[in-house]
Amino acid sequence: MKRIFANLYLSCSLLLPITTTIIYSPAISAASGIDIQNVLQQERAWAGLQTKHLKVGDIEWVYSESGNSSKPTIILIHGLAGSRDNWNRVAYNLTPYYHVIIPDLPAHGDTKIPNDFDLSIPNLTEKLRRFAEAGHFEKNVHIAGHSMGGAIALLYTAQYPLETKSLLLVDSAGVFKTANTPYLKDPNLLNNLVVKKTGDFDKLFKLATASPPFIPVELKTEQEKLMIAQSKNTQKMVDQLVAMSKIYTPDTFAIATKSIDVPTYIIWGDQDKIINVEAAQELKSLLKNAETPYILKGVGHMPILEADQLVSQQYLIFLNKQP
């Protein structure tokens, strides 16, 4: 099953670690040496999240958490080159009702790994499971994933169906027969999206969003610096993606996806230029227990930033149906 599901990695996007809920203020706009970590920590606090640390094997996990373990647990998984902070805006609406866990995946955000770490989807999924076990929140968990995080969520659910209560997929990675974007047809093009130099962030932001939310230029500058610093690991993951694109097919993806029968909800932006919206219906046809996809009009690849209120609202409605 792991080998089959490795193909889920093929159509993930390069995502934006920065979030945009911080309200514009003169203090931010006038800052010449803004501390982006302090800004993000304030946003996490606004969302009801605390930063936690957990060492599991050779990984030093950093994650956000809210609520107590007596509430139903949700694990939110970000995408390639993203971070836990991608989910802050959605988490704001979930934390009053759920025990929310949002990890920085290995080689992302603040989570630390060895230099020779295996960054494949199967290994990331296995390490996520070990993390959940060490934190004692692996039982009866709701799993949600965005883009590459959707690939990990799918594989996690396929491997641990008895302990997964539901699955949310937001513009999820996969290998689709209905692929009609350049990045699905030729994964080599993803090499052009790695943020390696000044100016790359703006190109990526315009590609990933249909209605880009406002971000003060100082925050964008600092975010670009962080992504440039992480570009080596991002490039390693893209290299694996390209290599696997030569091995796996939509048929192997379909076989693996059809094994999943937990309640599933699919959300997609109809203007997604990375993973086209037709993939949502294809996923619906493969999953045994998926509701009709919720399609967001005028939204690109980043619904969790572009339409966070609608994503939260629809997800809460779906969660309330679960026993």
From TrEMBL:
<feature type="domain" description="AB hydrolase-1">
    <location>
        <begin position="72"/>
        <end position="307"/>
    </location>
</feature>
<protein>
    <submittedName>
        <fullName>Lipase</fullName>
        <ecNumber>3.1.1.3</ecNumber>
    </submittedName>
</protein>
<dbReference type="InterPro" id="IPR000639">
    <property type="entry name" value="Epox_hydrolase-like"/>
</dbReference>
<dbReference type="GO" id="GO:0004806">
    <property type="term" value="F:triacylglycerol lipase activity"/>
</dbReference>
<dbReference type="InterPro" id="IPR000073">
    <property type="entry name" value="AB_hydrolase_1"/>
</dbReference>
<dbReference type="InterPro" id="IPR050266">
    <property type="entry name" value="AB_hydrolase_sf"/>
</dbReference>
<keyword id="KW-0378">Hydrolase</keyword>
<dbReference type="InterPro" id="IPR029058">
    <property type="entry name" value="AB_hydrolase_fold"/>
</dbReference>
<dbReference type="GO" id="GO:0016020">
    <property type="term" value="C:membrane"/>
</dbReference>
<dbReference type="Pfam" id="PF00561">
    <property type="entry name" value="Abhydrolase_1"/>
</dbReference>
